Amino acid sequence: MPKETGKTRWQDLPIGFMITDAGNAAEYHTGTWRSQQPVRNNDRCFRCGMCYLFCPEGCIHRGPDGYFFADLRYCKGCGICAQECWSDTINMVEETE
Description:
The chain has helices at residues 50-54, 80-84; strands spanning 36-40, 60-62, 68-70, 90-94. By secondary structure, the protein is α+β, with helices and mostly antiparallel strands. The protein has a domain at 29-94: 2-Layer Sandwich (Alpha-Beta Plaits). The longest helix is centred in the middle third of the chain and has 5 residues, at 50-54.
């Protein structure tokens, strides 16, 4: 796969690499690990932020409209956001290429 412009992907790192730059996690788009992705239904969402609080990757952000969304460049598809959603707003769907 080609490198993204200006970003190094985790697949491009040599095996057993050493991290020499502090705070470099934002450079590695780990969303390619995912087999499922979260899809939100805004009609059901009451913007409680539980998905944001429980996301272990910190890839869920609040948009200007107050709704939360997952940054799919970093989402690994674990489904914790969907599991913790009180209103069943988030569904995990099969990843498509």
